[in-house]
Amino acid sequence: MIHLNLWSLTQPVGIIRILAAILTCMCFSLVATVGYSSSPYWAWCMFTWVFCFFFTLLILILEFTTVSAKLPFAWDDSTAAFAILSSLMCLATSIIYPTFFTCNTCHREIGASVMSWLCFGVYAGEVALTRLRPSGQNSGFLSTLPGIMKILETFLACLIFMSLERQQYVGSPGLQWCVAVYSLCFIFCIIIILLTIGQLTSIPFSFDKLVIVYNILAAVMYSTAMVIWPLYSFSNNKRPNNCGHLCPWDKLVMVTFMTIFNFIVYTLDSVYSIHLVFETLASQIQ
């Protein structure tokens, strides 16, 4: 039986979500009135605000109607993961949009940039509230350190895809390998997250060990991309003198740095996962 839960909207987390929905709506509304841009960075910023607005509103509705309690997955874990992802996305957008699309007389763009920073602050506040609630931290996978690193890995991959252009890697087997690395690791990371949220990890073999194997392979694959991408991208390819905002050469730099960051995250994820396994074995022996 579905009933309305007004408390879900009046509690601190509910109020923060209402503010997030209002602020993200203001962001994409202001940018939409400015006009369309063909830049992938513009598309990323608009996607971020619309994505955050839609799912924040959906969370509010599902909790207000108590439908969230009847869903076949870990609701608290999913909302905590969404808040972490939204804060990362809004942080990136708050840096990207004013860097490429604002000027001294661009009042609506400046307003959207300010609202975006407020969105980041609101979602960061939600993360703090959901992870520091009186009953303790969430026990779900996505609320743990390995889960947060999985979210960060997918987020960094999204930034890489946003900066990729087909002409950058067509005709170069080395760069095509890098794109394959980004794509495969992203797909498997999403599958792990979905299986965990849906509580579908009961398989004939150890899911935790499978994740460790994946983390190690992903770290190794990213280590090759970390070397190959800049080697092939910047060989005899200096930055053009007329390279301004949204320059294709700068996107190569963006992909390079995101590759390095994701390699570091995958490496830390692998080390931490192995540490947890040895810690569990040690406790079982004792």
UniProtKB/TrEMBL annotation:
Cleaved signal peptide residues: none
Entry GO CC: membrane
Disulfide bond as UniProt keyword: no
Domain MARVEL stretches: 8-135, 141-278
Membrane listed as a keyword: yes
Domain of life: Eukaryota
Positions of transmembrane segments: 12-35, 41-67, 79-98, 110-129, 141-162, 174-198, 210-232, 252-278
Keywords: Membrane, Repeat, Transmembrane, Transmembrane helix
Location of the protein in the cell: Membrane
Membrane topology field: Multi-pass membrane protein
Family stated for the protein in its record: Belongs to the MAL family.
UniProt-listed PANTHER family: MYELOID-ASSOCIATED DIFFERENTIATION MARKER MYADM FAMILY MEMBER, MYELOID-ASSOCIATED DIFFERENTIATION MARKER-LIKE
Protein name per its UniProtKB record: Myeloid-associated differentiation marker-like
Organism in which the protein naturally occurs: Seriola dumerili
